[in-house]
Structures are given as structure tokens and as C-alpha cells.
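Email to the structure team, subject: Methylenetetrahydrofolate reductase (NAD(P)H) model.

Hi all, the expression group asked for a predicted structure before they design truncation constructs. Nothing fancy, just the C-alpha cells so they can compare against earlier work. One-line instruction: predict Methylenetetrahydrofolate reductase (NAD(P)H), return C-alpha cells.
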Amino acid sequence: MNHVARGDDPSGREALTRALRGESAGAPIVSVELRPPLADLDAADGIDAWIDLNHAIRRFTGDGRFVFLTDDAVGVSEEETLGHLDANLDPGIDRSRLVPFLTCKHSLDYCRLYAERAHTMGLAALTVVGGDPRGGAPRCLPHAWQLREKLRERVPALGLGGWANPFRAVDEQAGFLLDPHLEADFVLTQVVSHHDAGHLTELISRIRAEGFTAPILAGVFHYRSANPRTLSRLADFLPVPAEGLTAEFDAGLPAEEVTARSVRAALESGADGVYVSNLRLRDAPRVLGRILERAGV
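Reply from the structure team: attached below.
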């Protein structure tokens, strides 16, 4: 059973999935998730932030890494982000390594145009997710796979990514991923840590046994400290192993070592690679290098 998405011209997408599996390099893929500057920054701060983002993207893509791009908006500011990428990134940057997120929380026409623009800009893929239903604009379609299906019809050469949450019921998540309508060339997961990687192991073991072949990249969050207020705030958006993290930081472990342990655990769980988030733009390449050195990747 092959769960890699269909399309009229799959050659580019097949190259993408091979790269995400690390087949060309013979090693697990380590990618990053970066957040473009917020739209409401003043002119000076905005310029500085885009300079930092440009440098980080140039360094990461120059190293052959994929860069997943997201922000905290659910409206027209996401289109502005795509426009800023087109206008502000250096011409020499390999845009095929840039993968923005797109939620269903827009009109269908907007989503189709977004995919067309991304493909025209030279981007190879989008990660298409449903979006938080608790607030903001309503979804144009109930489920992300329905939007991926529409985008596949409109831009068949564009790679499309899906989403899985190992902390939800394994039967539910496996059912989503094994559904023939998934329409995903790769899958990103909710962030996991070495304190709770068993959930990821269970999900990957289950779907691989059922013939799921698309690359899976596990999310890893770079915690810089165990500040209780920060951890409490983050817990509104992602599973935070606060007790374990607090014990490690109290014992004097550097932040890079804590993250490295999660990178190792994710790869040992069977993921084809990881994407590391919450790296500060200004020192992101250097910090990731220290994390990977400690992880032995």
C-alpha cells in the first residue's frame, strides 16, 4: 500500500520525498521551523528581523536543510508573509527548500492562489493543516485532506505535507494517516521530547506495519529554560513535559543537550527526520550545530 500522494507530474514530489527521507545523503533529515517577522513590527525592527531571517535561511538551505515557515496569523497576513519572502530573500537562496504552512482558515480561492504563488516562486511544497478551530476565521473546508485534494487538482507538481499528533488516540491518528484520501507527500508531527517519545514510537510502528511509506518528520521544540511561566504559557499550545524539563535544567544541563536528547529520541522512534523549532533567528544555525553535535547526528 502506497500512501504517497497522487498527481499528474509527481517527479518533483518524488524527489522531495526522497530528500525528506535522507536517501541522497544516507542520513536522517534535520530541518528547522522558523517564524517570519510579525507584520506589525516598526520599520527598523522589521528590517533587522528580515536581515536575520535572510541570513538564517541562506545558511540552512546552503547546508541542504529544509526550512518550514510559519507565523501566528490566520488571515491576509499569511499572504503578506509569502510576498515578503518573494521580495526580501536573496536571489541565490534555494527556494525549493522552503516549505510554508497553510491552514484551512481562509477562503478556498485564497488557498488556491497561495499554492499557485508558492509554486511560481519556486517553492517545492506546502504543509497544509486544518488550523485551530477555537478562534479566528472559520475553516474553508472541515479537514486538511480536503484542502490538499483541491490544491493537488490546481497545482499537481507542488508537494503537500500533512500533520499528525502522537498525543491523540493512536487509532484515530493512524486512521487519518492510512486513509487513501490523505493526499500528503510527507507528514510533520506535533513536537515530542525524550520524556514522552513513546507516543511517537507507537504511532510510527502502527502505520509502518500497515504500509505507510511517506516520510515522517517529528517536531522537536528547543526549550531555552524551564521558566515556569513560559512553560505554562506554552502548555496552551503543545504538550510540555514540565517536570522532566525542570529537573534537567535544575541539574545544570545546557539547553542544547536537552534538545539533543529529544532529537535522538525522535529518530530512535522511527521518524525519518526532525524539524527543530523555537530557534532564535540571529543565532539559529550556530545553536542547531551545537545541538546536532551533542546528538551525534
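The longest helix spans residues 43-62. The CA atoms of residues 197 and 265 lie 6 Å apart. Ping us if the truncation boundaries need rechecking.
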